[in-house]
Amino acid sequence: MRTSKIVALVVGSLLALGSLGLIGGGGALIWAHNTQRDADGFYSTGTHRFETDTHAVVSEDIDLGADGGGPDWSPISSIGTARLTVEQPDGDEVFVGIARSADVASYLGDVEHVTFDRADRDPFRPRYLRVEGGAPVPPTEIDIWVAQASGRGVQTLIWEVEGGSWDIVLMNADGGRGVTADASAGLATDWLGAIGGGLLGAGLVVAAISLALLLIGSSGDDTSAAQAAAGLRVPVGPPPEGRAHPVWLEGRLDPELSRWLWLVKWLLAIPHLVILAVLGTVALLLTVVAGLVILFTGRYPRAIFEFVLGVMRWTWRVTFYALVLGTDRYPPFTLEDVPDYPARLDIPVPDLLSQPLVLVKWWLLALPHYLILAVFGGGWTLGLGAGDLDGGRVALGAGLIGLLALISGLSLLFTGRYPQGLFDLIMGMQRWTYRVLGYAGLMTDDYPPFRLDSGGTESVLVERRATPR
Hints:
The chain is of the alpha+beta class. The chain has helices at 3-35, 101-108, 191-218, 224-229, 265-268, 270-297, 302-322, 361-365, 367-377, 399-415, 420-440; strands spanning 43-44, 48-52, 56-58, 62-63, 81-87, 94-100, 113-120, 125-131, 147-151, 155-160, 165-172, 179-188, 248-251, 256-258, 343-346, 465-467. It has 11 helices and 16 strands. Strand 7 (113-120) and strand 8 (125-131) form a beta hairpin.
């Protein structure tokens, strides 16, 4: 690949990740704006009890920027309307007010009160910092409040939010000791929807830019003709007749591999991994449908079989590129078989399948293999897991395969060679993995053999060497 195309793929992949975050965040905010407001347009907290044996409960300082005087278009001046709802459970008169922090400090400086510090979440239990002092002047007799409400029953305070440092004060209306109240807070604002729309729009723009870069980076194959002419691109060849197991998987190690490109292949593969996560989920659901059809008819629907096989082929090509590191040729975005790509997979459509086996082979009969595959592909991961046919992951997990691939990559970096023995071992584990996936995915009744070899075929191997690019 040309350096310009590698750069385009790297930047495009990073932008694709960023666009997913922007689109997801924007969508979540729009959803919240449209579904999480009450009838009056407020986003509200639950109702929680605040209780103290002192004269007042004071919130932490609410810092909303510079004190007043801001322009009408400043963010704080248009943030929205706050609502506080309080009720004294015993029916006594309660008071709630909002004032500037400096005024509250002056009013309650020598008064016994508590300041809200933090709260346990489940169950909700507020934690306070206690301040010793005497008794206050009743809160209704002072004029520091920018918004207040007091009386018996449910009291509602409404405040048009403005800049400054503010405190919320909860007291008995007469300033007496022992404050108990059930309180909730709400905010009415159009910002959430506006921000969500902005994030969604920005995410779509970034996605379009990333798609353009990915198309530029993955378009054409600069080295295809030259490698073919030099005899360096040897097709893997078609699946052999009479092979030992229906699941046929092969890979050809590129004769020339970059010393350093493997370090970023996981990043370049991100667009594939995102698509495969979606396709894998669809393949899993369709496999369930196919299982029901097989249970009653003994036949695997051909259209579903071809789709699921296409997802497995795509996954294997990406795995061979990003995890096995066997080729520097960027995988094509297709479900179809690509005869000249160095990684190929084939499973013939079965004529008839055992109906009773559908109920047990994907979990009970395949269990011994799952334990082995957990060693092959478990442990840690290189990136997003592509969906498989059995509710887990496909060959993009790491484990022993990833460890051996890492060792091979380091060998490439320092010696310019991919060790043939490691390649053969990794290929054997991949064959084992995909034979189990084909069996557990109901695509064959042939029980997977407990072996690493190809079952009658050999990988196409040519002399290997790596050169810096």
